[in-house]
Design brief:
Layout: E1 2-4, E2 7-9, E3 29-32, E4 39-50, E5 55-58, E6 63-68, E7 78-83, E8 86-87, E9 91-95, E10 100-101, E11 104-108, E12 114-118, E13 124-125
Antiparallel strand pairs: 1-2, 3-4, 3-9, 4-5, 5-8, 6-7, 9-10, 11-12, 12-13
Length: about 130
Amino acid sequence: MKKCGGQQQIHSKVKKRFKAKFNIKKGDNVVVISGADKDRSKAHKVLSVDLMASRVLVEGINMVTKHLKPNAQNPQGSIVKEEAPIHISNVMLWDAKAKAPARVRRERKEDGNFVRISKKSGEVIK
């Protein structure tokens, strides 16, 4: 941290002490549990996970309008709708067997790797 005029300024290049461990990975099905797109009965696919910012990009959720300037490939310019990331705490993993959102526990296998297990149904999440 750097003191600048009596205020503290945090640099974006400062490394965090611990890497966050989340139970949500790219390709998982999740349910949005809070926010404008809240629907606990419908699962959506995770497109990407940003560990440093604790954000996920979910298919069809948090759509924003982006205005593109004209260029050589697109001489007219255009308006495009695309997904914006939401905080990882606003989503919950979808349990396909129970057909409901479920919390997750982690168990270590014999070879040392972790396996995610649904607390609702007891099934291993792949």
